[in-house]
Structures are given as structure tokens and as C-alpha cells.
Amino acid sequence: MTSPALDPMTRFPVPGQASLAYLKPIVAGHPKIEAGEFTYIHSFDDPERFADQVKYAFDFIDDRLVIGKFCSIAHGASFVLNGGNHFTDRLSSYPFPVFGAWGQPDPGPWPNKGGITIGHDVWIGWDAVIMPGVSIGHGAIIATKAVVTRDVAPYTIVGGNPAQPIKTRLPDDMIARLLDLAWWDWPVDTIKAASPALMSGDIAALEAVASHA
Predict the structure, then answer these.
(1) What is the DSSP string of the chain?
(2) CA nearest 162: which of 145, 149, 151?
(3) Which residue in 83, 105, 138, 150 has a CA-CA distance of 20 to 30 Å to 176?
(4) What pLDDT shows up at residue 131?
(5) Which residue stretches of the chain have pLDDT < 70?
(6) 86 is catalytic
């Protein structure tokens, strides 16, 4: 029998821990949110209300939040889509057309920086904020309370407001090897066999698992 933790559609993979849930089954069918297998959300409130952490996800804007596999999302992290954007190139930033009583003509398309794309194996810290149009590379770490306004390179740690690179997690050659291995796309049984290597600093051990898969 397969362990519930190895089934990506299990809502609560750790028995007795209702604050930690796999995200994929929670957002299944949501028009604005997509989550990869085994990505989890930790929430001291209710992880099943993750959609509340995605702000300004309005139907009239064509944007989405796409999250990869094996990501770790801490309590309070939020993702801001484009529905709250205002014009910044007009004489006023006030959204007169929203209220419909000012005789304001159609202002044209509202500002849209694009959706949010988060790679695989990304850790997003407590109360971090990811702004619209941002792409976060595989293996990156977003520090607690960081406000991410620009793209983040793979395996880079960023922090602050606005978030700035702090350092890369691993040497460049190791990053290149990890990106080439793309272990997050392996079959579940292979990832299970590779988990001791993934929890070490020995990339040769991970490559050995790949060579025998």
C-alpha cells in the first residue's frame, strides 16, 4: 500500500498535523492557481484556504499563479496578481472607471505585468510577498518578510524589501548539475530512493541514483 505522503493528492500527508497540507488537491480546478506535486503549504490558520493568500485574482485580468513541484510555502506568504494594479502613466492613479459614476470613458487595458511563476524546490518564507510578473527559479529561497519585485535566479537566496540577492545556495557547477538532473521530474519511487542523497551535500550520490534509475 502506498504511503499517503507519496500520493500528491493527499490533503494532509503528516498524520495529526492539520496545519500542513499538500497544495495540489487544495487548488485543483482553481482558474487562477496551479500547484505541482508534493508542494506543501504550512498555515497556523487553515491551509485549505490557501486561495485567500493569492491577492487580486480577478477574472477580468489574464494572469495566473503557477507553482512547481516540491515547494515549501510558509505561513502568511502571499502572492499578488494584477487585479489591484493602477495606471501610473496617467495624470491620476485613482481608478475612476471602477466606480462607474464619473463619466469616465474606457481607459484601455489595465496594467498587467503578467502572472507569477515559481519553479521547483523553492522555499518561500513566512510572510514573504511575491509581486506580479515575477519568476522564481528552481531551488531558490525567499527569506522571511521579503518583498519580491524582480525575477530570482535558480538556487539564489533573496531577502529584504525590495528583495535583493544574498547569496547562491550552492557552487555554480553544482547548480548546473542539479538543473541538468531535474530530480523533481523523476518517478516517485526514484525520488524516494534519492531522498538520502537529496538531504546530503553529495551530488555524486544523487547522480549515482539517476544512473541506476
Answers:
(1) ---GGG-TT-S--STT-TTEEEHHHHHTT-SSEEE-TT-EEE-SS-GGGGGGGEET--TTS---EEE-SS-EE-TT-EEE-GGG---SSSS--S-HHHHS-S-PPP--SPP----EEE-SS-EE-TT-EE-TT-EE-TT-EE-TT-EE-S-B-TTEEEETTTTEEEEESS-HHHHHHHHHH-GGGS-HHHHHHHHHHHTSS-HHHHHHHHHH-
(2) 149
(3) 150
(4) 98
(5) 1-2
(6) yes
Task: Give the predicted TM-score (pTM) of the model.
Answer: 0.94
Predicted pLDDT at 174:
97
pLDDT of residue 1: 52
Provide the pLDDT for residue 3: 81
**What is the signed CA dihedral for 115, 135, 118, 147, rounded to 10 degrees?**
-90
pLDDT at 109: 86
Q: Are residues 196 and 133 in the same domain?
A: no
User: Residue 98 has what pLDDT?
Assistant: 84
Q: Are residues 145 and 174 in the same domain?
A: no
Question: Which has the closest alpha carbon to 128: 82, 154, 162?
Answer: 162
C-alpha span between 30 and 153 (Å, rounded): 27
Domain total in the chain: 2
User: In which domain, by residue range, is 66 found?
Assistant: 4-169
Q: Which one is catalytic: 86, 120, 138, 212?
A: 86
- Whether residues 98 and 177 fall in one domain: no
Sequence-distant (6+) residues with CB within 8 A of 135 are 116, 117, 118, 119, 151, 152
